[in-house]
Amino acid sequence: MHALQHDYEQKNQQNNNVRPFGLRDKFGYLFGDFGNDFFFILAASYLMVFYTDIFHISAGAVGVLFMIARVWDAFADVLWGRFIDTRKTTKMGKFRPWIFRMSFPLVIMGVLMFVKIPGMSDGFYLAWAFVTYILWGTLYATVNIPYGSMASVMTSDPVERTSLSAWRSLGATMAGLIINVGGPLLLFVNNEPSESRFLMTAILFGILAIACYMACVALTTERITAPEREPQKGDFKKTVQGLGKNKPLLWILVASLVFMVTTLLIGSVNVYLFKDYFGNTTALSVLGFVQTAVVFVAMPMINPLVKRFGKKEVGSTGLALAAIAYLLLFFLPNVNETIFIILSGVGLFASYGLFNLIIWAFVTDVIDYHELLTGLREDGTVYSIYSFARKIGQAIAGGVSAFAIGAVGYDATKAAQSEATLDGMYSLATLVPGVLFAIAFVALVFFYPLTKQRTLKLAEDLSEKREENN
């Protein structure tokens, strides 16, 4: 079975005279999400408070913006994925050239999101927020879709793909360490967001993001090249039918969407929770450090756990533990920031360490399953469908977060929030994530079909089918 899994890839390597998959590829792939998440995490965690407290846009208007932008991004992802699949493979590969070309305009637009031109009207700031945020999200697709699709052509081995997923998540975690630990210290002065500090931080992160994207392009190698074929009549119909029959895709979409909504909700609400409920934004840095530390703890455990138990089995366990941790936070009395950080750490270890570290390996399996169903290798299209669901999750999370903060009575003009508002914030940060993690667990454990044994069989069947077609 192991030989069958590697046959197709080895032939590609021999034909293209490329080096074998190794540590260099893992580091290169790490740098891709390291670069992505400098702005993604910064925007997910702090852009809402920038808009409400610096642009003085109402929480409801921010919610509308986030929902409109993410829904548009979801469709942009699919369009870009189809576009990428119609491009011919170059000497650099099919996906790496697009990361190189599009990273520069993406970073420039990321910086512009945090620019406040002084002396303008409230309407101007609202329009500026809409234009820059939507353009940034559109440009993000032009880099992230080829980056995510690239994993399926770097190696065909399921265990190596799991390691790529883990290294990608490690890159995101490293960006998270810088932003979640450094963010509260860099962006706030006396528990209040600073306009000038937001801009300087965005410029710094832009420079770091470009360096990371260039490292990703330089260090990674695309090895699996599907035979070039002219589009045939009926291909799109076959693609749509294959997507509809792809049960692993449908259920990993559900689990990932719920997970995305939950983690973004936590990130957005925690800023307000520590600023107003606990009155200690410095403690938010401690939580950011814990979030990073637990991923580093989980990192060496992932490959052995997946090799022994399987991706579905490890991921569902993580979601169950996360649900328990957040529900405990809600029901325990008199929780201070220390207890909150400790139990949140358990939830973060379970969700980010045991589920999110392997999420991208689920996606490569789903891409393979699509090829087995349809005979079409459409990495960009399938990945963009997955990204579509994530963007819908971001739209829901961004909108729900802003609406929920507004619904519990948050008012940026008040020096102190009411007791009812503070209690509402706490429920948003604990009870809601606990319930959502439980829903994601049910979707994965009861409906996602690719167990460890079925994933190994998939790799074997696909290798045999490729052999027959060559």
TrEMBL record:
One of its GO terms (cellular component) is plasma membrane. One of its GO terms (molecular function) is symporter activity. The keyword Transmembrane helix applies. The chain crosses the membrane at residues 27-48, 54-72, 98-117, 123-145, 166-186, 198-219, 249-271, 283-302, 314-332, 338-363, 395-413, 425-448. The keyword Transmembrane applies. One of its GO terms (biological process) is sodium ion transport. The lineage of its organism: Bacteria, Bacillati, Bacillota, Bacilli, Bacillales. Keywords: Membrane, Transmembrane, Transmembrane helix. This is MFS transporter. InterPro entries: MFS_2 (IPR039672), MFS_trans_sf (IPR036259), Na/Gal_symport (IPR001927).
